[in-house]
């Protein structure tokens, strides 16, 4: 193929014409040969079968009379056909009557087909022709053997000689015609090639191809080529002007446009902005191969060089940031954006722009500071929610203590102890006559009965007061538990622990149990068995759960007390996540608010601040989880799902729990 590509166009035209003609002739010859062979085979078989039938018919009389001499004369007539090798007449009862050539014995006759009259075997045509007598039916069989292969080879030699002569004549004629006709095509093409060579070597777009007018494709190609040269000439002038404008534009961009080699960071072009942004003249970048690397900030130098080489080797567009020391000593943040020019599968050059992003970095730091302040505010709001919940439940418990204390006070005011004191005073007044007084005096007789009655009432009062005192003690212990739990959560705030999800839920429920009892809310626990612990910040999870429980309680304020129900489900939702689902049958959430409820400041409560769900969603995301809401619509309840990451190293498994 390389030799063919290097040939001149005239020789290529000649060679292509000869190859095409030769291919067509070969295909035609092959087709003719195939047809002749097939036709010869069919005719050879037909002629041989006809000849066998004639011999069989002529030998009927000799066979009937078993005339060997007559039968031999009949088959001897086959010597007129050189293709016939042998022929034998075998009687039906077994013996041979006559033969021509080599006689067919019983073994050689096995080659003849019994299913069809003729067959080709080892280059020979074998024909088994039955001999029929009118009165006796089949009386003998003629076995004829013809040399098909030798006859075919003789015919093929003749055809080969004839075909060779045709190919030689055709080749000579093709060479003569192609040389005469190809000049009408190759001369204009050669002229186009010479003109293109002049344009390529001399960059002279003013030359034109001079040729006679033609109406074919070559004529149109010549006209188009001349027209193209004219356009190139005009575009070259416009390109020179555009290049001047491009240089002016590059030097006006708010950034340093550059080009450098991909291997050693040697700059081959640098725009004038390098002087206004960094204080370094463009020529300094071009003269010193390591100029860029030497001006990098010491903390960024090694990483910036390595990153540049790595990104350049990938052959794709890239961008990364680093710091450069300016000429006046300032530290300037630079964002380098570049693209790799690839030639032959390897980076050939890098081009891009260096932009001063120092102001953006300062703004980003300020924005990050404000975000942290906002996050702290949200967390404080969440902690305030927890504290409010704790104080609210402590207040409920203290209210119960106050009621119990009031009941005790009222009961003591109605105590029968005063009447017992009066009875004691009456007995003391008798002064030695107590026995007569208790037995004879009507009032004295009543005193023992009165004392017995008062004693029973005092025992009841004692039992009632003991019950109230125990209730007060239990409520005080509850207050201590709530405060202690809040203190334990405050101590571990910010630390991640492996905790059981059920323990976190129970802690949140204990803080809200008084409020749930007061609002007659039934809590149903559906905790799956064999759940692994989660790795979370205890305090953040408590904030989220308390907020979700309080929201569910508020959502059921308009529901009848007998129907208020909150279902809490803990289950494994994926291989690495656990879900805590809090479902209520309250007022529900409109579809348009399902995503808005997590926005900062969004609330539907009159006294709400819009921090709860927003800070909860952020806290869940910080812990590697998520917070999502679902509702079938207003009046159909709501479902809040908190997903938390499962701890990579398990501490223990929590038991299943399903209760109300």
Q: Which properties best describe this structure?
A:
elongated; disordered C terminus; 5-stranded antiparallel beta sheet; 660 residues
Number of helices: 17
Q: Looking at the chains present, what oligomeric state does this protein adopt? A: single chain
What gross morphology would you assign?
Answer: elongated
Largest β-sheet summary: 6 strands, mixed
What structural class is derived from the secondary structure elements? alpha+beta
Ranges with pLDDT <50 over ≥5 residues?
A: 650-658
- As laid out across the biggest beta sheet, the strand order is 16-17-15-14-12-18
General description of the model:
The chain is of the alpha+beta class. 55% of the residues lie in helices and 19% in strands. It contains 17 helices and 18 strands. It has helices at 2-6, 9-58, 60-64, 68-76, 148-202, 217-250, 273-277, 282-287, 291-294, 301-314, 358-413, 417-430, 434-440, 442-491, 501-518, 538-555, 612-622; strands at 84-91, 96-100, 118-121, 124-133, 137-147, 256-260, 267-270, 318-325, 331-343, 346-356, 496-499, 522-527, 534-537, 565-572, 577-584, 626-630, 638-645, 657-659. The strands form 4 sheets. A 6-stranded mixed β-sheet has the order 16-17-15-14-12-18. A 5-stranded antiparallel β-sheet has the order 2-1-5-4-3. A 5-stranded antiparallel β-sheet has the order 7-6-10-9-8, with helices on both faces. A hairpin with a 3-residue loop joins strand 4 (124-133) and strand 5. Helix 13 packs across helix 14 (442-491) and helix 16 (538-555) packs antiparallel against helix 17. The longest helix has 56 residues, at 358-413. The protein is elongated, with a radius of gyration of 58 Å. It starts with a helix and ends with a strand.
């Amino acid at each position: 193929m390389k030799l063919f590509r290097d040939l001149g166009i005239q020789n290529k035209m000649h060679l292509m014409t000869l190859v095409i003609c030769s291919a067509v002739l070969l295909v035609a010859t092959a087709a003719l040969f195939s047809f002749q062979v097939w036709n010869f085979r069919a005719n050879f078989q037909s002629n041989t079968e006809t000849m066998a039938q004639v011999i069989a018919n002529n030998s009927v009389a000799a066979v009937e009379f078993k005339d060997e001499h007559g039968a031999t004369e009949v088959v001897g007539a086959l010597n007129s056909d050189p293709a016939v090798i042998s022929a034998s007449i075998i009687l039906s009862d077994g013996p041979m009557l006559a033969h021509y050539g080599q006689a067919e014995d019983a073994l050689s006759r096995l080659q003849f087909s019994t299913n069809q009259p003729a067959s080709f075997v080892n280059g020979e045509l074998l024909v088994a022709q039955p001999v029929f007598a009118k009165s006796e039916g089949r009386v003998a069989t003629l076995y004829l053997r013809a040399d098909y292969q030798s006859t075919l080879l003789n015919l093929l030699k003749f055809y080969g000689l004839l075909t060779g002569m045709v190919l030689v004549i055709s080749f000579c004629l093709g060479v003569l015609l192609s040389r005469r006709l190809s000049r009408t095509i190759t001369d204009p093409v050669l002229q186009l090639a010479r003109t293109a060579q002049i344009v390529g070597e001399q960059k002279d777009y003013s030359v034109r191809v001079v040729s006679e007018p033609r109406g074919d494709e070559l004529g149109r190609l010549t006209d188009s080529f001349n027209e193209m040269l004219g356009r190139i000439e005009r575009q070259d002038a416009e390109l020179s002007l555009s290049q001047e404008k491009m240089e002016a534009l590059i030097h006006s961009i708010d950034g340093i446009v550059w080009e450098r080699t991909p291997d050693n960071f040697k700059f081959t072009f640098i725009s004038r902005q390098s002087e206004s942004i960094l204080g370094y003249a463009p020529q300094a970048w071009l003269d010193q191969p390591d100029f860029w690397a030497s001006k990098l900030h010491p903390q960024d130098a090694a990483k910036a060089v390595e990153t540049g080489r790595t990104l350049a080797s990938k052959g794709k567009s890239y961008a990364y940031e680093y710091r450069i020391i300016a000429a006046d000593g300032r530290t300037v943040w630079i964002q380098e954006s570049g693209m790799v020019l690839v030639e032959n599968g390897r980076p050939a050059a890098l081009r891009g722009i260096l932009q001063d992003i120092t102001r953006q970095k300062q703004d980003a730091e300020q924005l990050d500071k404000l975000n942290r302040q906002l996050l702290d505010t949200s967390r404080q709001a969440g902690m305030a929610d927890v504290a409010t919940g704790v104080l609210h439940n402590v207040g409920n418990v203290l209210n119960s203590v106050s009621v119990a204390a009031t009941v005790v006070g009222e009961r003591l005011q109605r105590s029968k102890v005063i009447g017992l004191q009066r009875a004691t005073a009456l007995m003391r007044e008798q002064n030695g006559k107590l026995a007569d007084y208790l037995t004879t005096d009507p009032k004295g007789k009543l005193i023992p009965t009165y004392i017995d009655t008062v004693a029973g009432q005092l025992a009841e009062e004692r039992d009632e007061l003991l019950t109230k005192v125990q209730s007060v003690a239990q409520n005080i212990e509850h207050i201590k538990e709530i405060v202690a739990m809040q203190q334990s959560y405050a101590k571990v705030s910010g630390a991640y622990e492996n905790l059981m999800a059920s323990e976190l839920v129970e802690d949140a429920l204990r803080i809200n149990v008084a409020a749930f009892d007061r609002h007659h809310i039934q809590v149903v626990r559906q905790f799956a068995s064999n759940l692994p612990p989660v790795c979370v910040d205890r305090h953040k999870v408590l904030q989220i759960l308390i907020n979700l429980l309080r929201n569910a309680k508020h959502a059921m304020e308009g529901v009848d007390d007998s129907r208020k129900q909150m279902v809490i489900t803990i289950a494994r939702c994926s291989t690495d996540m656990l879900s805590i689902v809090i479902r209520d049958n309250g007022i529900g959430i409109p579809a348009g608010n399902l995503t808005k409820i997590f926005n900062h400041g969004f609330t539907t409560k009159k006294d709400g601040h819009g921090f709860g769900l927003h800070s909860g969603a952020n806290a869940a995301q910080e812990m590697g989880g998520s917070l999502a809401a679902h509702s079938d619509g207003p009046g159909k309840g709501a479902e809040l799902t908190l997903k938390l990451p499962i701890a990579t190293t398990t501490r223990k498994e929590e038991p299943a729990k399903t209760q109300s």
